[in-house]
Amino acid sequence: MVLDTNVIVAGVSSKQGASYQLLKEIPAQSFILLVSVPLFVEYEATLKRKKTCKLHGLSHQDVDGLLEVWARVCEPVFLNFLRLPRDFTWDELVQLLRYFDYIADQKGKTSGSRIQLTRDNYPPIDLHKPHPDNVVKSYVMRRLRDFLIEEGLLEANDDNDAL
User: Fold this and answer.
1) Is 83 or 8 the better-scoring residue by pLDDT?
2) Domain ranges in the chain?
């Protein structure tokens, strides 16, 4: 199930109603919550808005706590990435890799567009940030998808193999 951001906001707004009941069931895994990286970022940004926090009596720590619980039980959806779109941006790629706990680091002051992404107990990923535009090249997308599958971070399926 995918929950629209307005359902999330309505659920934290009041303990009355269906939205709150849905949010209560997320930790119990009564249903599978499907989220993409951009959707999860939208949840966070919306819930942490000054107006939203003030109106609903939430602190940023409260929001972080909710998101942490949800992140543990949700099912990530990377459909856009797995289809290897021609318009996948560098920012989307970095968000995706953050989900897998990779941290981007330039390789030094003279590294230019070279970026190394690291994660404990996994090989580093060395990439070049695309320029002048922000779109990731298709061969980079394929290599990265294959790497994530080989490392067991993404699940291979027939749709991926056909790409």
Assistant:
1) 8
2) 5-76, 82-161
